[in-house]
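Quick review question:
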């Protein structure tokens, strides 16, 4: 370590009354200092990697994959697949990107083409997507909440228009619903029917309002061929209002769904409030979700009403969080109960961390879970030991002890092992 001596003049005296005080001395300029003998963080062969910094920013990735699994009834199946992705940032057309997946046995795949950050007149920014995409939703409806509104995958097209100056967000999408399956690469399994989505959001100061409508037309109820009576139509709408300040946020959500297989429209209403106080945060709210409530045919929490409270606290060495819900059934008011969770973590030292937690409910039966874990760094990597004890509905007890380890391997590789031993018993 090289050190420099810094000499500062020191003088004593008394300033006269009313005399101007001399300005304080300027702090010494910052100077980088390098510890002698410290190895360089730059790899020796980094300079040998060919790279051309000229032109537009771009990236490309290509993978080949091989999978071997059981095909049922003792059979075996080998699946080969490829996955490719790339992007290029253009000065006039935003960022263009593409993702393509394909596998054989059985043959299938998916593709997605995106255009993001396209600037147009009037202060608008446009994002477009084509292929296997998720139905868009306003940012207000994606805020953390006690009630989750499901999204859907479609093979189609979507567009989003953003205007930060006026606080507007416009979204629209249309396509055929489906789901991703496959182990080697993700393949889109298409369902019958179409999904159309339209949403708008406006932000003005601390207030924000969002409205969203999604329509399902002749969507299949299952993955098999569509038969008479095996499809449905649905129309769902969501309205969200939020007030956000530095430390406090309040949001109200209203959902309505009319499903062709039901006689009347179903409604759901929930309120969420969050308060941040330094390292602590508090949340509370209430919800009313009618029975058979869905979002465009996708199941969501229903037939329940209640209130909840959450709290979390975190420091450099400690962290803790907990939730508590009081619930009751709307269709059967006599059915009620509570649900609670709690967990904490303590960083004992630089290398050792201890944790414990629990969860339990007395609604639609009783169930509890208690766990404890310890993680530590050692000469062979990072290890963790976790013990779980679960008491389920049918008077069944489950005890599991899990040991996992992350091994030190060269950069670019990852190797982890896990061993679990458990015992289940029924009384």
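Suggested answer, residue by residue:
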């Amino acid at each position: 370590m090289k050190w420099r001596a810094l000499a500062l003049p020191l003088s004593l005296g008394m300033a006269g009354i009313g005399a101007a005080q001399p300005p304080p001395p300027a702090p010494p300029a910052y100077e980088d200092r390098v510890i002698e003998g410290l190895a360089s963080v730059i790899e020796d062969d980094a300079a040998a990697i060919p790279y051309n910094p000229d032109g537009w920013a771009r990236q490309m990735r290509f993978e080949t994959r091989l999978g071997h699994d059981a095909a049922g009834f003792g059979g075996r199946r080998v699946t080969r697949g490829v996955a490719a992705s790339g992007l290029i940032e253009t000065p006039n057309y935003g960022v263009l990107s593409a993702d393509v997946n394909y596998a054989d046995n059985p043959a299938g795949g998916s593709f997605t083409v995106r255009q993001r950050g396209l600037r147009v007149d009037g202060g608008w920014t446009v994002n477009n997507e084509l292929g296997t995409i998720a139905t868009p939703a306003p940012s207000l409806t994606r805020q953390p909440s006690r009630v989750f509104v499901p999204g859907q995958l479609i093979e189609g097209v979507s567009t989003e228009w953003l205007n930060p100056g006026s606080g507007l967000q416009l979204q629209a999408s249309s396509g055929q619903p489906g789901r991703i399956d496959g182990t080697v690469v993700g393949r889109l399994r298409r369902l019958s029917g179409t999904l159309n989505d339209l949403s708008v959001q406006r932000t003005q100061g601390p207030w924000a309002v969002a409205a969203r409508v999604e329509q399902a037309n002749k969507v299949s109820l299952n993955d098999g061929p569509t038969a008479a009576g095996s499809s449905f139509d649905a129309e769902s709408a969501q309205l969200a209002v939020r007030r956000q300040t530095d430390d406090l946020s309040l949001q109200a959500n209203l959902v309505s769904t009319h499903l062709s297989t039901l006689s009347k429209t179903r409604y759901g209403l929930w309120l969420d409030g969050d308060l941040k106080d330094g390292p602590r945060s508090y949340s509370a709210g209430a919800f009313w979700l009618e029975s058979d409530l869905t979002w465009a045919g996708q199941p969501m929490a229903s037939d329940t009403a209640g209130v909840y409270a959450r709290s979390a606290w975190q420091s450099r060495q400690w962290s803790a969080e907990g939730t508590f819900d009081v619930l009751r059934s709307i269709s059967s008011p006599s059915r009620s109960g509570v649900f609670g969770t709690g967990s904490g973590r303590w960083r004992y030292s630089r290398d050792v961390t201890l944790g414990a937690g629990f969860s339990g409910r007395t609604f639609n039966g009783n169930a509890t879970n208690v766990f404890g874990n310890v993680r530590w760094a050692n000469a062979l990597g990072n290890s963790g030991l976790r013990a779980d004890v679960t008491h389920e509905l049918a008077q069944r007890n489950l005890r599991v002890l899990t040991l996992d380890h992350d091994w030190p391997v060269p950069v670019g590789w990852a190797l982890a092992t896990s061993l679990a031993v458990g015992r289940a018993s029924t009384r």
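Why it works: The first strand starts at residue 58 and ends at 72. Residues 1-18 have pLDDT under 50 and may be disordered.
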